[in-house]
Amino acid sequence: MRRPSLPRVRTTAVMTLAMLASACGSARMSAPQAPGYPAEAKAAMFEAAPSAPAQAAAIAADQAQTASPRFNTEQYAEIVENPFLDSARNPLSTFSIDVDTASYSNVRRFLTDGSLPPRGAVRIEELINYFHYEYPQPVDGAPFSVTTEVAACPWQPEHQLMRVGLQGKTLPQDAIPPRNLVFLVDVSGSMNDPRKLPLLKSAFRMLVDQLRPEDHVAIAVYAGASGLALPPTSGADKQQILGALDSLEAGGSTNGAEGIELAYRTARTQFRNGGVNRVILATDGDFNVGTTSQDALVQLIERERQSGVFLTVLGFGTGNTKDSTMEMLADKGNGNYAYIDTIGEARKVLVEQAGATLVTIAKDVKIQVEFNPNYVRSYRLIGYENRILRAEDFNDDRKDAGEIGAGHSVTALYELVPNGVASPAGDVDPLKYQAGAAPTNAAGTDELLTIKLRYKAPDADDSRLLSTVVRKSDVRLDGGSADLRFASSVAAFGMILRGSEHKGTATYALARQLAERGLGGDPQGHRREFLTLVDAAARLDNKQPGAVQVAR
Question: What is the structure's pLDDT at 428?
Fold first, then answer.
């Protein structure tokens, strides 16, 4: 079975419906036709609402898109895989951490629905970071611990696989500071689907159940225009909050930028110094009126994040999911991005991992690895393609990077080519105007590489530095720990789905074998679920596990 077709623009049929709707009259929409808003919010909204022809056009397009599964307008950013780099010419590898997990649950949705995911939907770092790993808790006041491990690479035995793991400190419930939350809910016509607004309501109900009296929640909604469905309300008034949630209905076009501005403005009015200040945007990402270009949305989010309010993006639905927009918003908004495909995923993100999702313990976290060319001939960072930074960005505190939440873990894998082994990085001619840099005394030691990390406290502007050294003697001669085996299984699976030129001997059978050996305790069953996804992908690829996979 092949991947679904994902056009980047609406089809002529949808555009025709929109133009017909645009010519259907000039009367302004009346308040009763704007579902999802309390009566007092409707009047103010419709004063600034777009003209009837513009709204009708957008609504017709939304309805046509939602009504027929033939119109698939999902959008994913192109991913250009990281290449192997020669360590003598490129000794530094610098990137921002990424705690998003949306790609894994989205891939699961595709496989469960009976199709292979498009390549752009497969972000390998998010597949790996979906799972919990047994990293130690930090000590000595640090916000996170650092774990490293090097062993043989399972899909290229002559190479080595290095794991870098960060573990954010876990906060007990009574240590979580007061929360100032704004639920920003997309109630446009495209959300009128069982996997969208109804699932969204169920997800937020679970979060509301966790609120304490010192927490406050507001609900902002947007369609063709935005409004406040619930002013800031104490967590003690759960019935009032749930009542406002239950009253939301879908209809209209999607002016997401206006809703974002309202949500941040509301969060600022209740800003809690030392507390959790966060907007939680729940949407399919299909902004179709107002500010719709990604560049303009980036500027909006970058401006709003200066207020100290963080952002969580929850993606919902199928058919018109704008994954690239939602990932970008979370990236630029000091936030995280999760895709909610089931009620179980909602529970994982908003209840089981509420601290990691909502409570930031370190921001602008960057990693820089320096390789010793005496031991490492070349290397490749697996995943994180859209998080790569320049070497100079590491020390630049003005450069934005990723955040770690309480209890979050972050894993990065490097494939290393030892000296004496043929390198996929290739060769270049000798330089004419300069000679290679002379090695230092440290190059003659047993140091394989040095890992440096920079991070800021959530309310700080200046970064702090951590570093650790990996030595040649640290290289394990076996297949590594159960966690490394499992992480390598997920990486192999991702490379197969992407048709990676670097997947070596990776097959579905190898991915399954590694996962079985790395199941560990698996109290939530997430790793065992992964086995079913490997089997589903193998069946959809019309091959049995164990068959050699050809890049598609």
Answer: 87
First to last CA, the chain: 12
Encode pLDDT of 101-148 as tens digits.
999 999 999 999 999 999 999 999 999 999 999 999 999 899 999 999
DSSP 551: P
CA distance 508 to 179: 44
166 SS3 class: strand
Q: Starting at the edge strand that comes first in sequence, how are the strands of the sheet with 376-382 ordered?
A: 85-86, 376-382, 409-418, 160-168, 144-152
Q: What does DSSP assign to residue 71?
A: -
DSSP 432-501: SS-PPPPP-GGGGSSEEEEEEEEEE-TT-SS-EEEEEEEEGGGB-SSS--HHHHHHHHHHHHHHHHHT-T
Strand ranges, E, within 199-302: 216-222, 226-234, 276-283
- Report the distance separating Cα 102 and Cα 126, nearest Å: 7
The candidate with the shortest Cα–Cα distance to 297, out of 333, 269, 266, 321, is 333
Which pair of tokens denotes residue 323? 């994954």
Give the phi and the psi of residue 335 in degrees, each rounded to 5. -145, -165
pLDDT at 82 over 90: yes
- Per-residue pLDDT of 478-497, as tens digits, reads 889 999 999 999 999 999 99
How much of the chain exceeds pLDDT 70, in percent?
84
The predicted-structure confidence for 260-317, as pLDDT tens digits, reads as follows 999 999 999 999 999 999 999 999 988 765 555 678 888 889 899 989 999 999 999 9
Q: How far is CA 461 from CA 32, 308, 362, 465, 524, in A?
A: 47, 11, 11, 13, 37
C-beta separation of 41 from 152 below 8 A: no
Cβ neighbours of residue 419 under 8 Å, at least 6 residues apart? 373, 374, 375, 376, 377
Q: Which amino acid is at 345?
A: E
Selected residue with higher pLDDT from 492 and 38? 492
**Half-sphere exposure of 461 toward its Cβ, with a 13 Å CA cutoff?**
3
Place 254 in a pLDDT band, splitting at 50, 70 and 90: low
Q: Which residues contact 92 (CB under 8 A, 6 or more apart)?
A: 368, 369, 370, 391
